[in-house]
Design goal:
The complex is a heterodimer.
Chain A: E1 2-4, H1 9-24, E2 30-33, H2 63-66, H3 71-85, H4 91-100, E3 104-108, H5 109-114, E4 128-130, H6 132-139, E5 147-148
Parallel strand pairs in A: 1-2, 1-5, 2-3, 3-4
Helix pairs in contact in A: 1-4
Chain B: E1 2-5, E2 8-11, H1 26-35, H2 42-56, H3 63-68, H4 74-80, H5 85-93
Antiparallel strand pairs in B: 1-2
Helix pairs in contact in B: 1-5, 2-5
The chains are: A alpha/beta, B mainly alpha.
Amino acid sequence: MFILSKATIENVYAAFIMANGARMEGIESEIFFTFFGLEAIQKKKLEHLHVATVGNPAMHIPTMLGGLPGVEALATRMMKSEMEKLDIPPVSEFLEILSDSGCRLWACKLAVDMFHLKEEDLIDEIEGVLTIGDFYGRADQDGTQLLFI
Amino acid sequence: MRKLIAHTEVEVNEEGYLTDFSQWTKEVGECIADENGICLTDRHWEVIEYIHEKYSCEEPLSIRGIKKSGVIDIKEFYKLFPGGPLKKATMIAGIPKPKSCI
């Protein structure tokens, strides 16, 4: 079970690829979207996720440059084109693949309330809005592992 | 290593995948499916045919590719080959396990 709390492309894809990879191996997987992770399941936002260029030493550019207008968009475009070359699907298609593969997708109630989101703001593949208690209830099985991203 | 499948001796690796596709026959495929608890139907064979086509064109297989295949959708694919469909389907089809992460 994955808890996705961030909306940068690198974090969203890490969760998606691991959750999908689990299904491909015949392992059950679920993703609980909380806090900024909710950006990845909002119809209007999910195609506009960015890679973080500020405060990310792996970008190998000075932090000040990373903050200039357009740099984040450029880096994101470059990363998306590299991913397309590797046949990695865009966010919306990836969510469809996950759902079709039997990976169950949930939204966090507290974060949904905090961002004033309605059910219609979220993609149809979301099965429900859960409290953390509900989520722990789902996780309460032998062999379940929780990963926080 | 050598393994006797459907009265024929074939070469397989430690995971049970055929190492020489030329040794594959429909009967071998049926036996491997049986070992994995899968009873092959016409739908399964359509998918296996698709996998062979991709293999002969040297195109890598992926779940995304299955979605675009026009032969089968992902939901049905998981239903036909439960417990890791790409792994199982390629093993039955007698080709190497896909190296794809998606």
